[in-house]
């Protein structure tokens, strides 16, 4: 009796559950400490102390009916104003609370953006490899996800193909930098070139093409690399931000959407985001954590912990013969699998108690994803298994 | 550039905003203390102290990565098990964590249920007057909301018309007791009769018709009235529960869906609810508050505060000539307007600084809704305005 759309998901989700059960099975045989689960993107670094302090300050000073009550569906005005100011300082912009809406993480943000923009059949472009949920989010509103490949030597998108694939049905382009699953950070030049393509096509087609930047990993960047802020480069731009990774609080579902004030139909978009937040059932982003993050805008998890993990794992894999683009952000590596069949490769890896995700899951076969948001010691211990795996093929 | 579906909402939402602005205008002229806003359902009773205590206990005893991290998209297993046990004790059932999924309030719960059940064109029946969001939730998944009227002398649904309107496209029936906007609690007899109709039609049509109970007001019931639990009466039943009102924490977006274990396609439904929670962008119900409510299952706001409000307002209105079904729950009154045109009546009420919602907003013209979740003193002060309003017509 469940809907046709959901039937497909349910059958897929049993595959994922099977993988999960397999992990549990391995743990029960070899001991959890000897199974190396690189499959999940659940941050292991602790949230900063400031979260706890903020909660206790709020409980001490603010009225419980304010803290836990309804507010405007867009979120508390004072919280939005503080975040706007924070963004303005960092990226030299002039946003106000009216450019922002608080959301249930970036996932909630992307959904209200797509509900706002898409008529059935409208197209949304993204670049492979990509976070598989984009396809589901677009399908929620009967849109069509169009996949443009990246150059697999750099994991930068193929802008020529992008230009070819844009047509009058193209409503939006989703980018994600620092990227899941590659860890690549899009350079300023790339963002400029991308903006140029979009501007050119908008003019040619007399249409609006919105650039949506999915940014749960914005603060997780290494080696001083700058992550360009798209509002500085492209007019029709929206950012879906999440505090899940920057503050290690993914369970709390807190983030925001910011829309460029110069975007086409800005007022309609902001009103629609507000209504979509309500009618999709989010109603508003969780209230206490809106107030918490407003007090933690200058806090961040210790990114060096992830960097140390990256260096250890990346250096070792390259040393033993894996080919991999060096990630400058997020907490993923996306090496080439040692045989073309990445699903088989992931299966083989299990023999050495390595749980990895085939690149096909991100529409980029011949690769695999490693999430290194696990403990340094566990990664260290896993290196031997990677050695054994590599020896089978190299 | 926004979608056709959202255009309609945005134009409607400017009407609501206009009302809101009007309230602000009145406050600026007459002073906030002299404007009587009965339009909002934002609980004014303070959350129980146990919320604060639970948070500080959790912060003291549990690991931050557990408290704020990802968990199964259905919610923490231990939390679901505790809630199941709590329900079992109260309603003599045998639920387990597998019958439950934690949601972003009842609004999130209803959305994942409808995403699970509806193919485009499927019909969902509800009884007028009803909470206007049901129409939006059903439209989110391209379903069609079919409205069956209630008897306006009792606000119990017309079960004959229900039976007439059920056809092979009918996927679900939504009920809401204690009811928004009438405050009426459905009796055990009514639930039994309703179940009989549904069972008969299921058999006749060889189909499954799910009964969905929207229960944000379950604990807000007066005079010892019992609110029947539909899982005890009907097999294909789901409850969307929320802690928003029982604990006065509507901003935190925490609730759950429970599905009867004997329901048709139970396993598919539970898996689909899990996936829908993820792909609609909720991902999971906010993590800290999942753990908080698990520690507050025996807590409740002081319902007597609402009861005192109801008694004061109901008794006075009836005394001065209003006709009103006496509400046994929730925090709403739904009297007849003193002229047939309820929109005009609401406009007239503003002359006496009374902000009320026309019954047409709940698809029941000729009435108006008063939310009495405001302070007792404010209600007392407002009585004079009701007197003046009534004098215009009686």
TrEMBL record, chains A, B:
<dbReference type="InterPro" id="IPR015421">
    <property type="entry name" value="PyrdxlP-dep_Trfase_major"/>
</dbReference>
<keyword id="KW-0032">Aminotransferase</keyword>
<dbReference type="InterPro" id="IPR015424">
    <property type="entry name" value="PyrdxlP-dep_Trfase"/>
</dbReference>
<protein>
    <recommendedName>
        <fullName>Aminotransferase</fullName>
        <ecNumber>2.6.1.-</ecNumber>
    </recommendedName>
</protein>
<dbReference type="InterPro" id="IPR015422">
    <property type="entry name" value="PyrdxlP-dep_Trfase_small"/>
</dbReference>
<dbReference type="InterPro" id="IPR004839">
    <property type="entry name" value="Aminotransferase_I/II_large"/>
</dbReference>
<comment type="similarity">
    <text>Belongs to the class-I pyridoxal-phosphate-dependent aminotransferase family.</text>
</comment>
<dbReference type="GO" id="GO:0008483">
    <property type="term" value="F:transaminase activity"/>
</dbReference>
<keyword id="KW-0808">Transferase</keyword>
<dbReference type="InterPro" id="IPR004838">
    <property type="entry name" value="NHTrfase_class1_PyrdxlP-BS"/>
</dbReference>
<dbReference type="Pfam" id="PF00155">
    <property type="entry name" value="Aminotran_1_2"/>
</dbReference>
<feature type="domain" description="Aminotransferase class I/classII large">
    <location>
        <begin position="34"/>
        <end position="384"/>
    </location>
</feature>
């Amino acid at each position: 009796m469940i809907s046709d759309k959901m039937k497909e998901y349910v059958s897929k989700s049993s595959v994922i559950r099977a993988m999960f059960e397999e992990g549990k099975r391995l743990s029960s045989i070899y001991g959890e400490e000897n199974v190396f689960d690189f499959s999940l993107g659940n941050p292991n670094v602790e949230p900063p102390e400031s979260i706890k302090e903020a909660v206790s300050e709020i409980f001490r000073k603010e009225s419980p009916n304010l803290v836990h009550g309804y507010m405007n569906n867009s979120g508390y005005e004072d919280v939005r104003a503080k975040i706007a100011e924070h963004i303005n300082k960092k990226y030299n912009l002039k946003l106000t609370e009216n450019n922002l809406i608080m959301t249930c993480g970036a996932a909630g943000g992307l959904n209200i953006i797509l509900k706002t923009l898409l008529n059935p059949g409208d197209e949304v472009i993204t670049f492979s490899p990509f976070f598989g949920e984009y396809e589901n989010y677009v399908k929620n509103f009967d849109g069509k996800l169009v996949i443009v490949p990246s150059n697999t030597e750099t994991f930068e998108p193929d802008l020529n193909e992008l230009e070819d694939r844009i047509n009058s049905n193209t409503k939006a382009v989703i980018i994600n930098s620092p990227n899941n699953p590659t860890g690549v950070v899009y350079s300023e030049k790339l963002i400029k070139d991308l903006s140029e393509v979009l501007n050119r096509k908008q003019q040619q087609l007399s249409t609006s093409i919105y650039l949506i930047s999915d940014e749960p990993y914005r603060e997780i960047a290494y080696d001083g690399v700058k992550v360009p802020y798209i509002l500085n480069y492209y007019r029709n731009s929206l950012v879906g931000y999440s505090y899940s990774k920057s503050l290690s609080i993914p369970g709390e579902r807190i983030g925001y959407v910011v829309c460029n004030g110069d975007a086409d139909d800005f007022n309609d978009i902001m009103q629609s985001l507000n209504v979509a937040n309500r009618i999709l059932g989010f109603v508003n982003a969780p209230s206490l954590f809106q107030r918490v993050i407003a007090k933690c805008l200058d806090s961040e998890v210790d990114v060096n912990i992830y960097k140390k993990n990256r260096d250890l794992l990346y250096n070792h894999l390259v040393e033993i013969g894996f080919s991999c683009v060096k990630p400058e952000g997020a907490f993923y590596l996306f090496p080439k699998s040692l045989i073309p069949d990445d699903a088989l490769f992931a299966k083989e890896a299990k023999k050495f108690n390595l749980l990895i995700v085939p690149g096909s899951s991100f529409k980029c076969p011949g690769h695999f994803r490693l999430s290194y948001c696990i403990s340094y010691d566990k990664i260290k211990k896993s290196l031997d298994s990677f050695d054994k795996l590599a020896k089978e093929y190299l």
